[in-house]
């Protein structure tokens, strides 16, 4: 687990930026339908699971199991951030991109308890979906060039 957290440091920076972006859009009263895709944490995490698994296979020698565990780590981290942002939205009484009905797959506003049940489902589904795409990334990692043994000179 420690190795996954170390390897994923760049992803964590991106996750923080995307989370701040979603909060900024929410605070700026951007209409959900017009802006939700701009800082999509789920899209960021899916793509990160693919390319981290590919690069780690080719350049760090990750096995398939290690790549899957890395994808699950990224997926769980993203879902924890989404869950906590949803809690914060309700606690502060704010309408944000985290408690918007469309983000919760609901027809209308949900009470906090129902929203958190849906977010708990994400805590399970997120790591699983990221594990699956990490498998895809690991397979595609074979197409990357080998890690250079020395840096080229100019």
Description of the structure:
The chain is 69% helix and 0% strand. It is built from six helices and no strands. 31% of the residues are buried. The model has no long low-confidence stretch (mean pLDDT 94).
User: From the structure provided, what is the oligomeric state, counting identical versus distinct chains?
Assistant: single chain
**Low-pLDDT regions:** none
Q: What is the percentage of strand-forming residues?
A: under 5%
- Cα Rg: 18 Å
Query: How can the largest sheet be summarized?
Result: none
SSE order, as H and E?
HHHHHH
Percent helix among the residues? 55-70%
Approximate shape: elongated
Terminal residue distance = 38 Å
Number of helices: 6
Mean pLDDT: 94
The secondary-structure class comes to mainly alpha
**SS elements, strand count:** 0
């Amino acid at each position: 687990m420690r190795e996954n957290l170390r390897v994923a440091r760049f992803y964590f920076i991106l996750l923080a930026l995307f989370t701040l972006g979603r909060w900024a859009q929410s605070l700026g009263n951007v209409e959900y339908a017009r802006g939700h895709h701009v800082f999509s944490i789920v899209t960021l995490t899916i793509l990160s699971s693919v390319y981290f698994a590919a690069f780690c296979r080719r350049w760090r020698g990750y096995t398939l199991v290690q790549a899957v565990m890395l994808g699950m780590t990224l997926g769980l981290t993203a879902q924890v951030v989404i869950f906590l942002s949803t809690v914060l939205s309700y606690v502060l009484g704010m309408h944000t991109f985290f408690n918007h009905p469309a983000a919760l797959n609901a027809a209308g506003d949900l009470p906090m308890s129902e929203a958190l049940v849906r977010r708990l489902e994400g805590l399970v589904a997120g790591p699983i979906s990221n594990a699956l795409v990490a498998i895809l990334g690991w397979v595609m990692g074979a197409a990357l060039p080998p890690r250079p043994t020395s840096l080229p000179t100019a």
